[in-house]
Task: inverse folding
């Protein structure tokens, strides 16, 4: 039960993390997996890729397919809508942090 609750909670953190990095530069899935692992998130590719696809579907990210040595790599960048969501999430996260610290 506890893992399920934490997983739902961390999903929002992961999406904010994705938006943050997609604003700084174009990101791709395997790099984002490594980044999330460095921050202690236990997430698999099978979980991350649907998150990226849903964020694209929700118009928070734009995708560009790039041919790298014969393989297609999907790069994601933040959209204007995603940037607005990120700004609001930062504000709310900061307020929450101040309250719970």
Result:
């Amino acid at each position: 039960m506890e893992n399920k609750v934490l997983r739902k909670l961390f999903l929002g953190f992961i999406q904010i993390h994705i938006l943050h990095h997609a604003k700084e530069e174009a990101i791709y899935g395997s790099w984002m997996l490594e980044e999330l692992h460095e921050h202690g998130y236990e997430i698999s590719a099978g979980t991350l890729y649907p998150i990226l696809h849903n964020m694209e579907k929700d118009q928070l990210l734009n995708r560009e397919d790039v041919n790298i040595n014969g393989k297609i790599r999907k790069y994601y960048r933040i959209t204007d809508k995603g940037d607005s969501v990120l700004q609001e999430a930062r504000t709310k996260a900061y307020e929450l942090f101040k309250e719970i610290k």
